Amino acid sequence: MKNANKKIKIAGFSWLFVIASVSCGKFETLNTDPNNITPANANANYLMAQILTSSATDYGNLGSGDMSGAIQHTAQDAWSSGYSNYQWDPKDWSGYYGRLRDDKLLLQLSEQNNWKFHQGVGLIMRAFNFGCIADLWGDAPYSKALNGDQGGSENTTPAFDTQEQIYDGVIADLKAALPLLEGTSSDFPEVLPASDVFYKGVPDNWRKLANTLLLRYYLRLSGKRDVQAEVEALAGKVFQSNDDDWAMSYPGVDQASSYQKNSKFNSPSNYNRNKMSATLVTKLAALKDPRIVIMAEPIITRTKVDASKFSDNTTLSKIVDGIRYINPPAALAAKDKQFDITTYTVDRPWGASANAIWNFYDTSAVYVGIPISYAGETYQYNLNGVGTQSTSNNDYVSYMRRDIYDNPSGKLLKARMASYAEVCFDFAEAAQKGWNVGRTAEDWYNRGIQASFDLWIKDYQEDVDDYDGCVKSYDDYIAQPLVKYDGTLQRIMEQKWIASWQASVEAWMDWRRTGYPQLTVGWASYRGQVPVRYAYYNTELQNNPTNSDAAIQRLQETNYSTVDGKNSSWAKFWLIQGTNEPW
What fold is seen in the domain 1-69+95-250+533-583? Predict the structure, then answer.
């Protein structure tokens, strides 16, 4: 593995808010040029801060970025082939392995000094980053990784451990971290609270996090193993409220430390190209879900279908008093059609010709989403004749809510890693299986919804009250027939998917193993289905061909991967082989 061959190098740490929050007496400890740090003089607190912030930034950007397209929370209407049409190229994992090299040094330094807090955090972060590699790619260098500086072919071109073996290692590391983190902050005076950007050096929070990640991975494995006893043993040891969430705020001082979709440190199209997905908007509308007002920007110009507004059958549309009217005969002649999420993939099935139906129009009063994998001309979606790919301006679809998401930082803008809502839905799934996790499936399900409402709506109740298309309270919401717990896994996973807004990685993982929520793709999809993994990057295939090929041969081809061969984003790895999921 090429990236495992490099000697350990400590990455620079640019998050100014950490340094700014350190007292004057401790500033000298951190006031060192990170580019000149060597393993011999590295500071464990500074190193830990780098590992935490870089892990959060990358994972947060993935969860509010590409995975938001994969799980169909959002869509892009410009340069969208990878985001909305799923033309996924092979992905490079060097960022993960670079961070793991830093983590290896952190563990070495903390063991030498008997700094148990740093050891515990180092084990959790090793588990998290190797877990991400296994989640995204499958088999990968693990037991022989990170040893390239020791020489020998077994270290410079390491074998790929199986996905199952890596998961076993992840679980072992999380368990090993727990006893190291017993005690209170006063038991770990060597910790600079500012270097722990998540929990300010409070060990009990890290213990709850380790158990929460154990719950995540046991559920991940539940389709392949009997993990009932392990899950039942975690009740009461995981996150207990939203205050425990594993999330990092964005300082917003430069592009690297800001929410990725803002336009302050990027071009305007960085925000403009991101619109709401029709998959999510349609579901939220059916559920009268008030979270839509936090997620989406109302359309600028409403659309209505009304033939009485026209004196002829050829004029397609016109705007009267700020409302755009559509002329049905003219729309039919132009092969335009009202959007219906249940039929649009039938009207234009995967691989259909580009001009089968030119466009859709949508008569939603306030919020309109873009269908996934609709076409290359999605910036013209909903009969938009003004916008171009270079501007992505569209008055007739919903952007992400501008006063929240077009900013470098904000109260709701965080790199979201794990949440109390996730814990509640995990336990709801376990209880639905008949496992004893302290509460009923319905109770855990309702608590997951409540946690999501508390997180997103708490400061925006006035906006919710002003929107006529939603219920106004949690109690009214869970009383609706389409929301009330019905005993099915599908309903649990559907609500967990909604609650994972801006933290979409875990929703994609859940969809792969359960098939929920049920996702469809449009005619322009690259392969006709949502991908299930990252393909191995070319440098790995070139530098470590024997071992990478052995891993590729363990992948299972599917009807969607045959064009690519086994190293495909549509080939199945061990976790979903034999499960008939997600397709």
Answer: 1.25.40
